[in-house]
Amino acid sequence: MNTTSPMPVAATSEERWTPYRHPQPKESPPELVVPNVIPTDERVWVPVDENVWFRPLLFCVSRGYWMNLLKVRRAGVLSRHRHPLPVHGYVLKGKWRYLEHDWVATEGAYVYEAPGETHTLVVDPDVEEMITMFQVNGAMIYVDPDGNCMGYDDVFTRIDKCRAHYAKNGLGAEYVDQFIR
Ligand code: FE
Fold first, then answer.
1. How much distance in Å is there from the Cα of 166 to the middle of ligand 1?
2. Is residue 3 part of a domain?
3. What is d(CA 65, CA 86) in angstroms, rounded to the nearest whole number?
4. From the CA of 145, how far away is ligand 1's center (Å)?
5. Quick check: is 30 in a domain?
6. 54-61: long-range contacts, CB 8 A cutoff, minimum separation 24
């Protein structure tokens, strides 16, 4: 018995190839395609620490999350932080781990970080470069080992950091606008 059935697209082959005939909902924001996720222009990388950068992909201001690549070219502790909301990660290059867990996020891995988690990001000395795509919801709350708040990032602080950097490096502050939805 065939338990699969085709997705309901159309009754005829002509209809199958007919684009949707109506406008998209007017409240729906424009779609976004970023051609080079790993940018060809190094100026797109925004420094956040020595040998640590992020590259914006999407800043969703109406839902309070952002998509970015994190790039690290140094060994050691990157940050200790708490997540009030889930984070999704995909490792494109290198590897990293958290002091609080015994797993290592290696190239090709998907990582789910649960709401309520506090953890300390480490890149080990045998890693020349680490690049990971993260969807960060809500905020990164930077904390000391007891969980006391030392600072935070949210979609708005990340936009500000891009604006300030792009204003200085010739891309122009408004370069960040293309990523905002
Ligand atoms: Fe995290």
1. 26
2. no
3. 10
4. 14
5. no
6. 54/158, 56/158, 56/162, 56/176, 56/179, 57/133, 57/179, 58/32, 58/179, 58/181, 59/155, 59/158, 59/159, 59/176, 59/179, 59/180, 59/181, 60/155, 60/181, 61/155, 61/156, 61/159, 61/180, 61/181
114 CA → ligand 1 middle, Å: 9
CA of 181 to the centre of ligand 1 (A): 23
Q: For residue 48, give the amino acid letter.
A: V
CATH number for the domain that contains residue 97: 2.60.120.10
* Domain assignment present for 132: yes
pLDDT at 65 over 70: yes
Distances (CA, A) of 149 to 81, 102, 112, 144, 156: 9, 25, 23, 7, 18
Residue 93: strand, helix, or coil: strand
At 167 the pLDDT is: 98
Residue 6 lies inside a defined structural domain of this protein: no
User: What is the Cβ-side half-sphere exposure of residue 59, based on CA atoms within 13 angstroms?
Assistant: 21
Amino acid letter at 179?
Answer: F
What are the tens digits of pLDDT across the range 24-48?
A: 999 999 999 999 999 999 999 999 9
> Count of domains in the chain?
1
Domain that residue 165 falls in: 42-179
For position 3, what pLDDT does the model report? 61
